[in-house]
Amino acid sequence: RSVYDGEEHGRFMEKLEARIRNHDREIEKMCNFHYQGFVDSITELLKVRGEAQKLKNQVTDTNRKLQSEGKELILAMEELKQCRLQQRNISATVDKLTLCLPVLEMYSKLREQMKSKRHYPALKTLEHLEHTFLPRVSHYRFCKVMVDNIPRLREEIKELSMSDLKDFLESIRKHSDKIGETAMKQAQQQRNLDSIVSQQPRISGGKKSKKEFGAGSELEVKNTSPMSEQDSGILDVEDEDEEEEVPGAQDLVDFSPVYRCLHIYSVLGARETFESYYRKQRRKQARLVLQPPSNMHETLDGYRKYFNQIVGFFVVEDHILHTTQGLVNRAYIDELWEMALSKTIAALRTHSSYCSDPSLVLDLKNLIVLFADTLQGYGFPVNQLFDMLLEIQDQYSETLLKKWAGVFRNILDSDNYSPIPVANEEVYKKIVGQFPFQDAELEKQPFPKKFPFSEFVPKVYSQIKEFIYACLKFSEDLHLSSTEVDDMIRKSTNLLLTRTLSNCLQNVIKRKNVGLTELVQIIINTTHLEKSCKFLEEFITNITNVLPETVHTTKLYGTTTFKDARHAAEEEIYTNLNQKIDQFLQLADYDWMALEPGSRASDYLVDLIGFLRSTFAVFTHLPGEVDVHSTMSGKVAQTACMSACKHLSTSLLQLLLEAEVRQLTLGALHQFNLDVEECEQFARSGPVPGFQGDTLQLAFIDLRQV
């Protein structure tokens, strides 16, 4: 820089060239000094070049040979490389297949399970497949297809399990009557067993324990029993052997479809949907079951089938309640039972009201009791059923009263209304066994002899006892106290006496063409029946063990019934006599303008007096072996005779004083006087014993005065 700045480069170049020449001279000197060594080196280098050329040729030749020899090795190495690559690919494939094969196996297993309708295991397999296996191989296309299919498979499982549930619901709807029949049969056997145990506790104690164990084990789930068992002959087992028991109602049904469907819907998170569907369907079935057939009242089998279906329905629901957690609950069961109870009671009230056969009503009562006991054994409250049975009891009493009205009518219509003749001791004891009659004087009399009453007395008395037995049958198994049973029997018997028997007696007394002899016999008969009422009281006391002195005990009103019938018969006697007298008086034909009287009383009056004499002779010849009979018939005869004489006197007085008779002659009056004298003569003759003095003649005193 200083050279250029000072513009001395020319001089600098000169100096530099001089410097170069100096160096060249030094180099030349040095070269000259080393020249021989250089020549030697060149010579050696030339020698080395020849050797190097040889070496090059050898290397080239060796390389050529090596290349020739290495081609096979290269090919082998390429093959080895491909093998290693394939091996690595195979290993990777095996690893991937190891992951994929379980997925495919699970999917295949899922298909097999769905094909064999094992829906719950299929759902579990699907869960494992989705959450465990598919995430490991999710990048494969077939896995994506599977993932896309999972929701559809779930829906398919839901639909198939729901289809099984529908089949199950349809099956139990069809077989509920068999289930109920089995349950009721089992309840009946339990009742029979309990009664045996109460009589022979030591002998039957072991069997009772066995039965109780069987009843307790009924609640176990029977998942493996085939549905076909419902149609087998298993229901025909009955009392073939003491050791053999009727199968539990749950043994007849395979509940596994319900459990499977419940589990499936629970796993799928749709349990509430399933519960709602199940309860809705069962409510519909309950309404169908509770709808009674229109002709149910015609036969007992109609009622039995109706009860079997209801029992079968609730046995199934009770089993579901105890074997599933929350599918049905106690509130739901109680609600269904309340509905069933109200509808059943309404149906029974309606249909039982059509029933007029007391034996059918009694059988229905026994069936209702068995129905109530069966359901009570499953924990259902049945008090309302027993309350309704008390209503049916009133209806039963009415049907009994109608039946016994016909029985009494037949007895009264077929009676000959004459004392029962007794030819030997055997017949006498038979009648005394039928009717409580004791008479020392009659027992002393030789055979043949006669009872004072006619045949309808022992027959009516026996039928009253039969009626009491019929009432007692209805009270069995109603869980009533002896006082309530006694009260029920007494009230029904009172209705029989005061209404049914009273009406029958009144109809007999009031019917046309009834004879005076028959009426008198009815009076005697009703007197004996009245006296037998105390024996009926004793009879009821013996069968109910309730003393008549007990507070609130109903008394029998039979005495009133028979007194009323007797008074009606007496009134009918008086009325009949007066009617006969009026018929005779219609024949009276007085000539009030006659100049001369006849030689004797009028013909119609003579005939009338003759009729009265023969009539009262019947009273005189009635059975009078016992004082009470003669006294009773005597009083009736005296009253009838006095009534007849008064009526005759009044009628004759009306004839004499009637407005059409404006004048009469002395001859006509004398003729009328003869007729009055005939009447007075009749009164004096004492047609009926027992009148004091001229008591009977006083009936004609007013007529005589006129």
Automatic annotation (TrEMBL):
GO cellular component annotations of the record: exocyst; plasma membrane
GO terms for biological process, alphabetical: Golgi to plasma membrane transport; intracellular protein transport; vesicle tethering involved in exocytosis
Coiled coil regions in record: 13-72
Renumbered residue ranges of the record's region Disordered: 183-233
Keywords from the named record: Coiled coil, Exocytosis, Transport
Record-linked Gene3D superfamilies: Dsl1p vesicle tethering complex, Tip20p subunit, domain D (1.20.58.670), Exocyst complex subunit Sec15 C-terminal domain, N-terminal subdomain (1.10.357.30)
InterPro entries referenced in this protein's UniProt entry, alphabetically: EXOC6/Sec15, EXOC6/Sec15_C, EXOC6/Sec15_C_dom1, EXOC6_Sec15_N, EXOC6PINT-1/Sec15/Tip20_C_dom2
All residue ranges annotated as the Exocyst complex subunit EXOC6/Sec15 C-terminal domain in the record: 384-706
One Pfam family here: EXOC6_Sec15_N
Domain spans labelled Exocyst complex component EXOC6/Sec15 N-terminal: 15-184
Keyword Coiled coil: yes
Keyword RNA-binding assigned: no
PANTHER family linked to this entry: EXOCYST COMPLEX COMPONENT 6B (PTHR12702:SF3), SEC15 (PTHR12702)
Family per record: Belongs to the SEC15 family.
Protein name: EXC6B protein
Organism: Rhagologus leucostigma
Record gene name: Exoc6b
